[in-house]
Amino acid sequence: MTRHLPLLLAAVVLTALSYLVFPGHTYLQQDSQIYVAILEHLHDPSVLAADPVATRHHVTFTIYDELALALRRLTGLDFETLLVADQLLHRAAGILGIYLVATALGLSRGPALLVAAAYALGATVAGPAVLTVEYEPKPRASALPMSLLAVGLIARGWYVAGGLAGSLAFLYHPPTVYPFWLVYFAIELWPSRPEEMKRRIEGILPLVAALFVMMIASRLQPGWRDPDPFFGTIDVELEPLFKMRASYAWVSLWAGQRIGHYLILWGFAMLAFWRLRPVMPPALRFFAVGLPLVGMLSLPVTYLLLDRWKWALIAKVQPARALLFVTLMAVVLPMTAGLAAGVARRFGEAVAWCSVAFLPSLTSDVVAWFGPALMNAVNLRRLALALGLGALAAGAALLAERKGLLSRLVWAAALLAPFFLIPSVGQIVNYSEIDSPELEELIAWARANTSRDAVFAFPAAGRSLQPGLFRARALRAVYVDWKGGGQINMIKGFAEEWLKRWEEVMAWPVDEARLKIWAARGIDYVVVPAAQRLAGRKAEFENAAFVIYRLEKPEG
């Protein structure tokens, strides 16, 4: 333990920097709005009982909800505390996994931590709308780093431990982990010495147990049960809705614009793989090549199965999100190659590789930098920053074998500087805050002055994310909201209902006839911006941003 204490402390520091500085974190800004609403309803079925986002859930095939509910009952802590703790633990697991990969490639502790730090910076995977380091606590935010830990463990020859980590990742979010297990099965089938084959087989045994656990948990899952047919297709009438609300699942809508970016990153990753191949353990070779290959192949597979054949299951699984492994390997492998070159005193090569590794954190469209857009002042600044950070990392590797104060200072600068310089000098803003004091006043009023079964409508909200935040914090049903529509991929019946509600409510202006219809639909309160108050109606509550009106239920 004493020997590994510096490593554990470094992992804690990198996790804290990644969480608090860059790429940062959010809560109830995106998907966690939906997961928290579902968890609150599962914890207390009387909460959000009139909200289809909470009741028609999609958590049957994940243990994320079971773990959160069990920990809440055991500890009495609220979901925010528990989910954030889970998120932090798994971020640290991902950092340790990349560290193990780097050490398996021959790097010593200092340079290996620089590779882990480069991963911890995260990157946006545009098109399929996913991140290599998720900002919010949700199943994918736990499954992805756990699968990276699994890769690291297997790279070091610990197959059973890797299988356990990969199986836990599978239990959290199977769609995120399918590339890992596809590659592992390829390793399993590859001829090797009997002793090695035996160890590989032992690594699969935890997955068998995980499948059994998943089957039991899905059978015991409380709440909504209305599974769509396994081979069901997306109706022609609903296809425009799916493409409007969930365009990230349809590769035909974005692949043409994004393919160049991923081909370039894939090329960088494979060139770095070839450079590292002589020192790469056999199992790691499979992952280094196989994970990004699965990501690239997911594009034609998704196009065929979803865009052409309209298989609804593909909209749920969204296999094209495996592109994140292209981006990941375009960070990890070039950074490792660069630091290895720096240790070998090939400074120019080291700078080139390390600079490449910083690109995914600075841009989601490398192609644009090959044209006139590079002359943009911001892009030039970001390119210069990538080169500067690459030179700093290369310098740290060059001094890695020395024991003096200078080498430690340069290493610390190379480790810490990217977390502060990328958001400041690079002007990278990953998210904007949607909360406000006025919204918090609205939430507090609703919790204190309305019944648990009250239903709120936000007819002027449009694509704002504030109604979803209101639902999760006020624990009051929202008739329809944009973020809640993200579940249309999961349940066909929900898609139909969401579209109907969206068309009913999201149109302006509002007149008395529509208000009567809404009251008959079960809406109790209407929330509008203060600048768009309803004429002739008395407000139940108002502040600088919102006005709330109560609707009277029709008699009979």
Summarize the helices and strands and which ones pair or pack:
Elements lengths: L4 H16 L11 H12 L8 H4 L8 H12 L3 H26 L4 H12 L3 E2 L4 E2 L7 H17 L3 H14 L1 H16 L4 H27 L18 H7 L9 H22 L5 H27 L3 H6 L6 H20 L3 H16 L14 H22 L6 H20 L12 H13 L5 E3 L8 H9 L2 E2 L13 H14 L6 H9 L4 E5 L11 E2 L3 E5 L6
Parallel strand pairs: 3-4, 3-5
Antiparallel strand pairs: 1-2, 5-7, 6-7
Number of helices: 22
Structural class: mainly alpha
Shape: globular
User: Which sequence of strands runs across the widest sheet?
Assistant: 4-3-5-7-6
Average pLDDT figure: 94
Report the span from N to C terminus: 71 Å
- How many domain units? 2
Strand content: under 5%
pLDDT under 50 segments (min length 5)? Answer: none
Main beta sheet strand tally, sense and closure:
5 strands, mixed
Order of helices and strands: HHHHHHEEHHHHHHHHHHHHHEHEHHEEE
C-alpha-based Rg, rounded: 25 Å
Question: In percent, how helical is the residue content?
Answer: 55-70%
Number of strands: 7
